[in-house]
């Protein structure tokens, strides 16, 4: 019931000042005869569904909260509902906006599922299959609904917290999921939000969902900071007019002072590549080492090829690295090499490279679009030691070798040196 009940026209309200006047003092129940002479049947039914507080004084109850106590939150929620009227036209408009998000189709599809509440969260699955496992995999305290997972869960809120712009979202945490997603596109005053804002929200949600699936199916145990760090390379790439995978730059100036290898963020793989060129024989050795956030080796390669210059060798090394990442179906990859001119050309289109190298790098760019995110980083040669050793071996021995997980023993010393300096690589 919203607001006070309206009495019937022409009824006698004399002596009716408080709710207690409608209660039979001897029985402690509603005075049914008086009620029906005062209000409509529907209002009477609503009143009679409330259990009277017999013998206790009247108190005011707030209709917008479950416990009847007033809260600013409930009032805010009510006001927000008026700010986001979800008419059919509005909903169609939001669908159009979701499918127009400047991001990869996978994220568009994800947001569409999110908006329509058809993500297979545990609460939803439990209602259908009675799995008796409805709890949120992050906090293990509340049922995993879409609303809880992305808006209310302390874990997800901690992830959002890393993105300062996102904190205002939680002023709206009483909104439904539909209203919340609508708010990505429209401000309270009905004006368009900052370009790319919705893409950022979509990206953060998508990552929360991916990590949630890893927790459920692979029993990993990430921290909110790990998740935030894995999202950052994506957010840095978002330009108003560019797709998410197009360019992710790491300023090569900042790596000049770095004297040790750093591990990538959680859920990101780092592929170090290097080329060893000998002018006398035009013979090139390429070396590759693939490691995760803990510095674990996921693969290593030595490859012998031919090239006409040192620059072309470096281009060939990067192209081969990207080809390998695509073959392995990696998603988020940092390609780290010791050829500054190559990295600069890819990240900023600055500097000139020979036409042979340009062809290689243009091919690299196109190929890298099939990965979810790519970051190109320049590091000094002595920091890229493992890949350099593999490249040199390939050049001198003319070998093609691939190692999966178990690296060759001649790399142990350099790998150990890198492990000693493993730190979180926060972009
Ligand atoms: Zn939770």
UniProtKB/TrEMBL annotation:
Residues 70-160 form the Reverse transcriptase zinc-binding domain. This is Reverse transcriptase zinc-binding domain. GO terms for molecular function: nucleic acid binding; RNA-directed DNA polymerase activity; RNA-DNA hybrid ribonuclease activity. Residues 272-394 form the RNase H type-1 domain. InterPro entries: RNase_H-like_dom_plant, RNase_H-like_EbsB-rel, RNaseH_domain, RNaseH_sf, RVT-Znf. The keyword Protease does not apply. It comes from Macleaya cordata (Five-seeded plume-poppy). It comes from the Eukaryota. Keywords: Nucleotidyltransferase, RNA-directed DNA polymerase, Transferase.
């Amino acid at each position: 019931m919203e607001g006070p009940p309206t009495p019937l026209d022409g009824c006698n309200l004399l002596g009716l000042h408080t709710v207690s006047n409608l209660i039979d003092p001897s029985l402690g129940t509603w005075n049914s005869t008086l009620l029906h002479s005062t209000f409509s049947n529907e209002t009477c039914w609503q009143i009679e569904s409330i259990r009277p507080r017999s013998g206790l004084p009247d108190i005011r109850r707030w209709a917008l909260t479950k416990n009847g106590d007033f809260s600013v939150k409930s009032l805010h929620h009510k006001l927000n509902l008026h700010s986001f009227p979800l008419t059919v036209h509005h909903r169609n408009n939001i669908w159009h906006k979701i499918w127009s998000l400047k991001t990869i189709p996978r994220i568009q599809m994800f947001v569409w599922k999110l908006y329509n509440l058809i993500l297979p969260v545990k609460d939803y699955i439990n209602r259908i299959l009675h799995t008796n496992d409805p709890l949120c995999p992050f906090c293990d305290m509340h049922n995993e609904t879409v609303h809880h997972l992305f808006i209310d869960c302390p874990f997800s809120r901690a992830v959002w917290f890393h993105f300062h712009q996102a904190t205002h979202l939680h002023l709206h945490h009483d909104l439904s999921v539909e209203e919340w997603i609508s708010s990505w596109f429209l401000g309270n005053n009905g004006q368009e939000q900052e370009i790319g804002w919705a893409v950022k929200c979509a990206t953060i949600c998508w990552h929360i969902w991916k990590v949630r699936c890893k927790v459920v199916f692979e029993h990993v145990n990430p921290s909110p900071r790990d998740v935030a760090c894995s999202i950052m390379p994506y957010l840095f790439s978002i330009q108003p007019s560019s797709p998410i995978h197009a360019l992710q730059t790491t300023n090569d100036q900042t790596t000049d002072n770095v004297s040790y290898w750093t591990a990538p963020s959680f859920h990101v793989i780092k592929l170090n590549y290097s080329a060893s060129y000998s002018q006398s024989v035009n013979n090139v050795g390429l070396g590759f080492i693939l490691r995760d956030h803990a510095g674990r080796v996921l693969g290593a390669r030595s490859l012998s090829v031919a090239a006409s210059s040192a620059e072309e060798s470096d281009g060939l090394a990067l192209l081969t690295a990207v080809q390998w990442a695509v073959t392995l179906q990696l998603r988020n990859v940092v390609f780290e090499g010791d050829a500054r001119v190559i990295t600069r050309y890819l990240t900023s289109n600055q500097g000139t490279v020979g036409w042979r190298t340009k062809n290689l790098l243009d091919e690299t760019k196109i190929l890298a679009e099939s990965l979810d995110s790519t970051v190109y980083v320049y590091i000094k040669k002595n920091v890229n030691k493992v890949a350099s050793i593999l490249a040199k071996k390939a050049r001198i021995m003319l070998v093609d070798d691939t190692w999966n997980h178990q690296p060759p023993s001649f790399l142990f010393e350099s790998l150990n040196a890198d492990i000693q300096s493993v730190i979180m690589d926060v972009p």
